[in-house]
Amino acid sequence: MAMPSSTTRDLISDDTLTICAISILAAMLASLLHEGVGHAAIALATGTKSGLLTAVAWSSESDSRLVAAGGTLVNLLAATLFWAALRGARKLSITTRYFLLISMAFNLFDGTGYFFFSGITDFGDWARVIEGVQPHWMWRLLLFAVGVVTYYGSVILVGRGYVRDLGVRLEDFARLRKLSLLPYISAIVIVGLAGLLNPISKTLVWQSALPATAGAHSGLLWFRYYVPKKTNPRNSTEGIERSYSWICTAIVTALIYIIVLGHGVTLTP
Length: 269
Known about the structure:
This protein is mainly α. The protein is built from ten helices and three strands, in the order ααββααααααααβ.
């Protein structure tokens, strides 16, 4: 197969607004899956009478260990589905492939990162899961170990997706950085803005939402150092062009997400 020349690669450009729009949609989806499906839906399905769902938390009078674990488990299940979709997405547009990849990355990093986070801090969902289980130190250590191993695997998987499914070569450092840094920043901004409006506690933004987003998604900043050198693109190299459909969809959805879920919605069975 003929390979693009360095001159051809230099001419490839990606639209910043479209990248941010796709990234914002992927970040909101990962958050909604975690809080809305993993926590709220499971809680209501298992006997919780009512609760408050916000962009950064689910709050009810009583939640089980299953509810606490549900957010992570749903993120990991969603990541698996996005990965499967990406495997068969060779004929889809690069914007759709990029959305699938970023959605996979956010869900993978949110899911595996929580093991590490709770193991280290004894705070958050998985701290609730192992609460009261003895010896507690051993369970925290196990969470930490599982987090390290699974997160490292996620970093490699995401990195291979950038090269293999998007056609971004490892030597194209500037493009790789743009396509990974913008999603990282976009997720922090959208979750932070929505989190500031939550009525449960503003401290959730600093204690949970931003650490979970900025910390868990940090793999986007350094995955390029761990991509197997033999990974090659399976799709033609092309740039992400300006797409007003993605941009408009992101704007409308973000407004709903911030205004509605930011302030919170009371849910009952």
